[in-house]
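Re-run with default settings, no changes from the original entry. Doing this only to confirm the output is reproducible before filing.
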Amino acid sequence: MFGVVPEFQAKGIDAFIIGESAKVIQPFTNYSEYEMQWIGDFNPKMINVAENFGDTFRTRKLVTYRYFFDQTKEFKRHPILL
């Protein structure tokens, strides 16, 4: 898990971190691929990074379900990150 502070977003730093992490980690494993998993649908910036990063493709769409034990509480969806 990682994040990029807003002032450095949209400058390719997120893709750089992903690419360099793969170069550092993969030589020590038997894995030739990696998966960027569970990017919330409220985070279009990160979806864009994942979809435009090299030979990437969407293999599945994950969903998070919530169960509220206190049914009187109002559910508020996470706002879209702009």
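The two ends are 19 Å apart (CA to CA). The mean pLDDT is 81.
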